[in-house]
Amino acid sequence: MAADDHHPHDHDHGSELSEMQLRVRALESILTEKGYVEPAALDQIVEDFETKIGPHIGARIVARAWLDPEFKRRLLADATEAINAVADLDPTSNHLIAVENTPQVHNMVVCTLCSCYPAAVLGLPPVWYKSAPYRSRAVIDPKGVLAEFGVTLPPETQIRIWDSTAETRFLVVPMRPAGTEGWSEEGLATLVSRDSMIGTGLAKLPTEGGR
């Protein structure tokens, strides 16, 4: 490979826009020029994903559950009701079920027949979530799949697989990392990744987030 060739995952850190943002801008321009979308409608969709839906919403829900035992109890009993009852959380139309990771049980979500996904709290699904290898191997060899994501669990931890459907979506509540006592909801939310809310990852360590 030539010295000036770029690895496909490299990013130009000198640019004000990320590689993904540049791709989105280019796609917006093409769709608008061809008359496939109205700029105002596209702007509204983008705004909705930035403010009303996406993994930052799910992260806030998890962080609140870590801080508020009563909210966590309601969340695990009926996630849709709990989220929709909180004034400063945007409502979800999904029939959402929250499952909690513990030292004894680690939960993973898969959709074996399609790619059902709680977009209201996780945003757009990652490409691998829709792939046949993930959908099949997560059921057959969950520990192997987790290892590929860099997650190693204690031998005694049971892995429970939840099959998402068009009617029922799942949100995994990861375990709160040690060393986060006294953290604010906003700080805790920075430790909650999208993958940790699917069950293919863990919450970040305190050194990886912000207070």
At a glance:
By secondary structure, the chain is an alpha/beta fold.
Features:
disordered N terminus; 211 residues; alpha/beta; two-stranded parallel ribbon; 4 strands
Main β sheet profile? 2 strands, parallel
What form results from the Cα inertia axes? globular
Q: List the uncertain runs.
A: 1-15
End-to-end CA span: 42 Å
Strand order in the largest sheet: 1-4
Mean pLDDT: 84
Tally of contiguous helical segments = 10
Number of E strands: 4
Q: In percent terms, what proportion of residues is strand?
A: 5-15%
Order of helices and strands: HHHHHEEHHHHEEH
The residue fraction in helices comes out at: 40-55%
- Assembly type of the chains comes to single chain
* Class by SSE composition: alpha/beta
- Rg (CA only): 19 Å
Write the SSE topology:
Elements: H1 19-33, H2 39-51, H3 55-67, H4 69-77, H5 79-84, E1 96-100, E2 105-110, H6 119-122, H7 127-130, H8 132-140, H9 142-148, E3 158-163, E4 169-173, H10 185-189
Parallel strand pairs: 1-4, 2-3
Helix pairs in contact: 3-4, 8-9
Q: Would you write up a description of this structure?
A:
By secondary structure, the protein is α/β, with parallel strands linked by helices. Helix content is 40%, strand content 10%. It is built from 10 helices and 4 strands, in the order αααααββααααββα. Strands 1-4 form a two-stranded parallel ribbon. Helix 3 packs across helix 4. The protein is globular and about 55 Å long. The protein starts with 18 loop residues before the first helix and ends in a 22-residue tail after the last helix.
